[in-house]
Design a protein that fits this description.
The longest helix is centred in the middle third of the chain and has 17 residues, at 91-107. The protein starts with 12 loop residues before the first helix and ends in a 13-residue tail after the last strand. Helix content is 30%, strand content 16%. Helix 3 (57-65) runs parallel beside helix 4. The chain is of the alpha/beta class. It contains five helices and six strands; from the N terminus they run H-E-H-E-H-E-H-E-H-E-E. The protein has helices spanning 13-21, 37-41, 57-65, 91-107, 120-127, and strands spanning 27-31, 51-52, 78-82, 115-119, 132-136, 145-148. A six-stranded mixed sheet has the order 2-5-1-6-3-4. The radius of gyration is 15 Å and the shape is globular.
Length: 161
Amino acid sequence: MGLLKGIDPMLTADLLWVLRSMGHGDRLAVVDCNFPAANIARKTVSQKSPIMMTVSLPEAVASICSLLPLDYFEKAAAYFMSPQEGATLPPEAKQVLKQVQASISDNNSDSEVIMAPLDRFHFYEEAGKCYAIVQTLERRPYGNVILVKGAIGPDGRDLKP
């Protein structure tokens, strides 16, 4: 494995291929170690499931968002898995989602990125429609997000309305 200047070494060649291949509006699921990534990845556009084996969800999202522009034309540029009706989000899940929001914000400091909830079963459905699924070593419950890829404008920055 070789390293590249300015590219986080956590981003594998397979993941870089996925990020580069995605177009505006494509979605990327970044999931925890308990998510059925291999199974659901077969339904995705690319049928790819790169693994970031030594990385937590917030670390993975920070690394991915260092390169991936988010879609500011959507109401929400990110979605997170939430419990089905009647269940509550455990404290560990609230913690990981707060850290993910911070990871996204750190890479998009000039705009607020909205993360919207998707109930557990709807999240599985939406993950199957993604371009790919990236699996992490995250062990906290509900450590799953979907990022919506935006576009890069002529100035080299994220395109915004």
